[in-house]
Each structure stands twice: as structure tokens, then as C-alpha cells.
Amino acid sequence: MDDSQARKFQKDLNAGLVALVLLAVLERTPEDLYGYEIAKRLQKANEGEALFKEGTIYPVLRALAAQGLLTSRVVPSYSGPPRRYYRITDEGRALLREWREIWRQTRAFVDRFTEGIDS
Question: Is the pTM higher than 0.70?
Fold first, then answer.
């Protein structure tokens, strides 16, 4: 597989996972987070390399908020434009529990074929 094929595969794979990962990040923190802060946490968790482009995160955060899975608030910033902070809602937590189970089942299914794991 050449590099462009690998990048396309990663992009396609990430498209379906961004919302799951964002909900999980917000579930694990007691404080509200803004987009750039979330992006930095994701990068740090991936040993300094961003798996999701920052530009991918913001539209997904807005969509999750529009669906009632996150709340958001805008706070003025002294060092730049206002920041929009996000917090997961109870509905977001419930959906995350469902998505986690779907992810586990999907991962186990794929692993059976790609890793030769029998279950």
C-alpha cells in the first residue's frame, strides 16, 4: 500500500471514530474543555502525533452539541478570540455507553480476521 492509500484508509477510519473519541475525552474530565485543548490532549495521548486533524474536531463538536450530546458556552479570552467550552450531557454519556459496546464488537470482529484471533 502506498502512502496515499494508507492516508486515505486512516482518514476513512477516523471519520467514524472522531465523535466516539471526543465524547470519551469529555466524559473523562470534570472540567469543560475547548477545541484546541481537546486536540492537544488527543495529540499527547498519541505520543505527540495528531491522529485527527484539528479542523476535523470542531465540526464534530458543533454537531454533537446540536444533537444535545454536549453543552457549550463561550468564554472571552485575553489572548485571542473567545473560546467555546464543551461538556458532555447525560444523553451524551448514555450514547457513549452504547457506542463503546458497538466499538468493542466491531473491534473484536475485525481482529478475528486481521489478527487471526478466534473467539
Answer: yes
